[in-house]
Design goal:
Helices cover about 30% and strands about 20% of the residues. It is of the alpha/beta class. Strand 3 (about 110-115) and strand 4 (about 120) form a beta hairpin. Helix 4 (about 125-135) packs across helix 10 (about 290-305) and helix 4 runs antiparallel to helix 11.
């Protein structure tokens, strides 16, 4: 996902100042929502859902912590005979006996860390494990490290991580700093709505609707520019947007569809992703820029796992829990070394 964040979430928003607070939504206010369907669900259901989305009631802006169980996840055959002497990154990892992989920790069913166990789960985590197996490393020989979006390039350049998997959109500017294997998934801006919402099927239906996104993000700016009749609301985190969606304070949440699928997977009986993506965000695996041997080896591993159905199984065990079938993986871009 491509985004820029501003310290003041309400600076460019048209909604009243009290909507810009970082305080979690007050459920008592939500009960008096203008939506005529506000009494259709018991209070206890919504409170339970809010706790799921927050990982723990009362923790501000927290993502849900639970993920798919280990028994539901595919197993990856480790290529114990794999060798890649042309890759300095692979040689260092082999010498230390483990891979160090950068990831996200706050994206439901994509890259998520359980604060209690420290376990990482999600589709991006499965892609990282799939690649590691192809490089000769079992999953117990991977050390995941949370890396903020702003620090991805620096972490790869400094050798703090061997590769990065975490909704990392491939673009030409980033290619000047790091290498990219893949893409392994084509995301695009989408819309998350309540399950019983029938009037919103795509961005053309947003006129007069309250739409929530992260302050300063590319999805926020796209709605602001392309759909100016939408009533745009912004917060620091998408989890607060989803809280407000569940309590009828907003009508839709927008960001990359992959992130929205993760939220829908948490409570598929309450939320759904609608319409077709209205942007293109090819997710790639970031590697050190000069390590073309590693980049091309990962390309080969991804292609093989897409052909044999392993990629699809990883999707179905994670993002597929949202109810959206596995898409066709995008063509891999084996661009020449520069």
């Amino acid at each position: 996902m491509t985004s820029t964040h501003t310290p003041n979430p309400g600076r460019n928003s048209r909604n009243p100042p009290h909507h810009q607070s970082r305080k979690r939504p007050d459920f008592r206010e939500a009960r008096h929502s203008r939506d005529p369907r506000r009494h259709s669900r018991p209070v206890v259901v919504l409170l339970t859902l809010l706790c799921l989305l927050a990982a723990a009631c009362g923790k501000e802006g927290s993502p849900p912590a639970k993920g798919p169980s280990a028994a539901e996840l595919p197993r990856y055959r480790v290529d114990s005979g794999f060798r890649l002497p042309g890759s300095a990154t692979w040689r260092k990892a082999k010498a230390r006996g483990r891979l160090v992989v950068g990831a996200k920790e706050d994206q439901p069913y994509l890259g998520e860390k359980d604060p209690a166990s420290g376990r990482y789960t999600g589709f991006d985590i499965e892609i990282a494990k799939m690649v590691a197996a192809g490089l000769g490393f079992p999953s117990n020989r991977i050390s995941f490290r949370t890396i903020a979006s702003a620090n991805r390039e620096t972490s790869l350049q400094n050798g703090q991580i061997d590769y990065y998997v975490g909704t990392y959109t491939i673009n030409d500017n980033r290619k000047k700093l790091v290498g990219f294997a893949g893409p392994y998934y084509m995301a695009g801006q989408g819309l998350l709505v309540r399950k019983d919402e029938d009037s919103i099927k795509g961005p053309a239906d947003l006129d007069g609707k309250r739409v929530c996104s992260a302050a300063g993000s590319t999805p926020y700016q796209r709605i602001q520019h392309d759909y100016p009749k939408a009533d745009l609301v912004s917060y620091d985190t998408y989890s607060i947007c989803v809280d407000n969606l569940l309590t009828y304070q907003v009508d839709a949440v927008t960001t990359d569809d992959s992130i929205l699928l993760g939220y829908a997977a948490k409570v598929p009986e309450e939320l759904k992703v609608v319409g077709e993506p209205f942007s293109k965000e090819p997710y790639g695996i970031g590697v050190p820029r000069k390590d073309n041997a590693l980049r091309l080896a990962i390309d080969g591993i991804l292609a093989a796992r897409e052909r044999d159905g392993t990629w699809k199984k990883a999707y179905e065990a994670t993002l597929g829990l949202s109810g959206v079938p596995a898409p066709k993986p995008p063509p891999i871009d084996r661009y020449p070394a520069s």
